Amino acid sequence: MSVSIKTPEEIEKMRIAGKLAADVLEMIAPHVQVGISTEELDQICHDFMVDVQQAIPACLNYRGFPKSICTSVNHVICHGIPAAKKILKSGDIINLDITVIKDGYFGDTSKMFCLGKTAGHAERLIKVAQECLYLGIEQVKPGNRLGDIGHVVQKHAESNYYSVVREYCGHGIGNEFHQDPQVLHYGKPGTGLVLEEGMTFTIEPMVNAGKQHTKLKADGWTVETRDGRLSAQWEHTLLVTASGVEVLTARPDEAF
Ligand code: MF3
Ligand code: CO
Ligand code: CO
Description:
Layout lengths: L7 H21 L9 H15 L3 E2 L12 E4 L2 E3 L14 E10 L2 E10 L5 H19 L7 H14 L3 E2 L5 E3 L6 E5 L16 E4 L2 E3 L5 E3 L6 E3 L5 E3 L2 E5 L4 E3 L9
Antiparallel strand pairs: 1-4, 2-4, 3-12, 4-5, 6-10, 7-8, 9-14, 10-13, 11-12, 14-15
Bound molecules: 2-amino-4-trifluoromethylsulfanyl-butyric acid and cobalt (II) ion (2 copies).
């Protein structure tokens, strides 16, 4: 495993890419309404990235992924493929995962949206998953270790009787989509890689209402809960700074 330390020039490019990814989530929010298809959401995001941001949608053609964003509805954990026939209905929950490339550098972020009237249990799952991300982010500072992040995420999910997906994880990020290290969303405090100033990686916990187990659909991408229960995910791209952390994909509604 080789974990790169980004130069000040690289960090500036990652700030720009991170801001653009966050801006896509802000832009798309008013469009996430009952009756729209996930393909329409993909199209709007694609056109915004390409035409307005002059950025590259990183997902498009990544290892054969056919669309520009991931749209994961209800029991879909991650990597849902936008489709014209997938029309959002009241009560649905959806994760939109956006990754942009600008000037050769990547920004990767996702958030949950609720459609119409959402069940209380679904809102609670979404809230706890977001708290898992924020608790993980609080652990990011030089000298702390990756196991400290995984531990707080796992502890918070499990103390709410939810489970953490094991097969997919956060990742280093920079001038490639997925770099070392792997950032697990479970683990033991005081173990794993020691964080250093200049590292950049994502935290992106996938929290299941039921059991942790996953099932890959025949399309080769869509990851679902095996038990068919709901799943929620939130993601940010992070920079380890001298004093702690900078959230490169922070939105205006978030205070870090
Ligand atoms: N954005 C996802 C992540 O957080 C990866 C999506 S890969 C795709 O790592 F091909 F499905 F788009
Ligand atoms: Co990611
Ligand atoms: Co992502």
